[in-house]
Design goal:
Elements: H1 32-106
Length: 107
Amino acid sequence: MPESPKPARAPRKPTTPEEFPTTSPFPSGDYSYTLEIVMAMQLSMGKLVEAVDGLKADAREQRDKLGEVAKDVHAAKVAFRVVAGTFAAAAAFLGWLVKLYVDYHKH
């Protein structure tokens, strides 16, 4: 079912306001509110800087602790390798001794 065409609107005439708002071309000279806002922003920035400094210190402490853990893990790996190497050398030596004993008593 085709839509029926809508009637065209009449164009609006531009309107001009009767009275324009009047503003003072110069500031009043009372900057107490602006000063209050600026001081509040300065206080907020100070708190923000303090919080960021605290976070930096915490990150530095965690980095140092992580470095210590990495050193401990490295030391444990080295100790394990030394123990495993010593055990392997002792097992090889004992195997050699057993072979010598078996070969000597074989004849």
